[in-house]
Amino acid sequence: MSLGFQTDLWRDAATCCPGIHESSMNQIRYTYCDGLLGRMLLVADEHGLRSINFPGSKRAERPQLEWREDRRGFTEATRQLRAYFVGELTDFDLPLALRGTEFQLRVWQSLRGIAYGDTISYGQLAARLGNPKASRAVGLANGSNPIPIVIPCHRVIGSNGSLVGYGGGLENKKALLALESRQRSLISSP
User: Fold this and answer.
1) Shortest CA distance to 174 belongs to which of 163, 182, 185, 184?
2) Which residues are catalytic?
């Protein structure tokens, strides 16, 4: 992909997906955040959060030599994640620096529209995007989401209600859905 195309793609992505910025060769920073799912690696650049990585995940990034550890630069992200894990936060408000195809960006933006505690199927998500037959492509884009939890890909389930596919592992998906279900029932109780 040429730089010109990438720039156009990101300009288009910023239009369709507020809070998403182009991420080029910026200074990469990282820190760790302990939570319900263990010690997660958070990665960001000057534009925002680039990824959240679960411990033991097959596709998790690892800090690179050129990256800089920076706990203070992640104060708000860690605050929001911790608030989410104790049931005090249902929507994240963080700048994101996503990198992906136009289709992936559309899927990830649509994921942000799934309410806390709700689930939808891959087919329903594909229909929301205007192509009900694209459930497999939606599943692949969902599985490529670099910022789980904040972009709630765990809220997408199989058409029969089963927990299928999750880049962070099905046990983590189950834990996140249980957390949201438990908190939602507490909120809606008289």
Assistant:
1) 163
2) 153
